[in-house]
Amino acid sequence: MNLTWIQIVRLGLVQMCLGSVVVLCTSTLNRLMVVEYALPAMLPGFLVAFHYGVQISRPHWGIASDLRGRRSFWIILGMVMLASGGFLASFAVTLIDGYFAMAMVISILAYGLIGMGVASSGTSLLALLATATAPHRRAAAATTTWLMMIFGIAMTAGILGQFLDPYEPSKLLILTALLGAITLSMTSLAIAGIEKKVMFRREETGTNMREALTEIWSEPEVRFFTLFVFLSMVAYFMQELILEPYAGLVFAKSLGESTTLSGIQNGGTFLGMVTVGIAASALKWGSLKQWTFLGCLGSALSLFMLAGLGQHSSMASFLTITVGALGYFNGVFAVGAIGSMMSLAGSGRARREGGRMGLWGAAQAIAAGFGGLAGAGLTDIFRSFMPDHHAFGTVFLIEAMLFVVAAIMALKIIQIAKNNNPTLPMGEYDGA
Description:
- It contains 16 helices and no strands.
- By secondary structure, the protein is mostly helical.
- The protein folds into two domains: 7-139 and 164-195; 212-432, Growth Hormone, Chain: A, CATH 1.20.1250.
- The longest helix is centred in the first third of the chain and has 33 residues, at 100-132.
């Protein structure tokens, strides 16, 4: 039995809960460490990179849910770890002033739990969608759940921004505890009974993980697309840890204002995704390749503008618009890239779709951790010998150039795939 649209939306609620907790750790707590507690941006950058590094274990969580056939268990277990990690991370921040060493130990444990929670819950959720969604609905189902995750991120950032001003440690702990309780309860209710109504296909036996990955890596389009995913995602995540500190240090935004700014960015991402979903699927405007290219180029232009704003105080009023535009083109890029990924996953050797998606997921996790850490680290280095507005601006310019390179690569991806799979219609790659 295949998932109904109502069941797909219910699974999307789980994805929304994942995004709601993660944004607290990668955005709000990062701002607190850098601005309110005056720590180097490299420190929260390391913690976020660590949580991404832990997510390299995604294939193992997926295999566990495959073999035991209890995906709901792994989804809920992951959410328990995620909610617990989120609360511990907030608790650690409140200890920084008086118990710095203890705060760092608790932070490492917390971000490890966050990474494992996302890996367990997120991977098992995608596995459930992949095995129980009708083939003609898979792309739309993936887009729906991704949009719901972005909505959860934007909504949580906006709400936290309103309630956190003025900042008090006790207020942070109360809000984090409530967020964990709400997301865990919502996940349990959303997933209840769905797994019992669907059937799972067992994976083929006789091939171990290393052999399967070797077969997949031998495909030229897989290698090129993996490089594209890594490079574009490094660019995508470089600003994640420095945007709120940039708003606070260069534009003197308060904690609530900078958190709200993050919500505007994610709201723009949501609108960008909706635009591509409607234009490419319903109106048949443009191909996925073209939307990916447009998203990369638009993101680069927005970053050039963001870097320029800090150099001219008279243009500070355009900060919100520029951040919203960056989010919008990030969303256009994300949907175009995800759609292209789903199209390419079905090419080459049969029954290896999960392996290809797993490889690209690992590339994304590594890039996300490296990108966030590189952005924070470069900012600290540049701030040591130049004013804040120049330091942040230089990092944004580097990120913009990476997006330009990714845009050029996007133009070549489809042709490489077509050359190596001449029997597959071009429309399947282009998304037409």
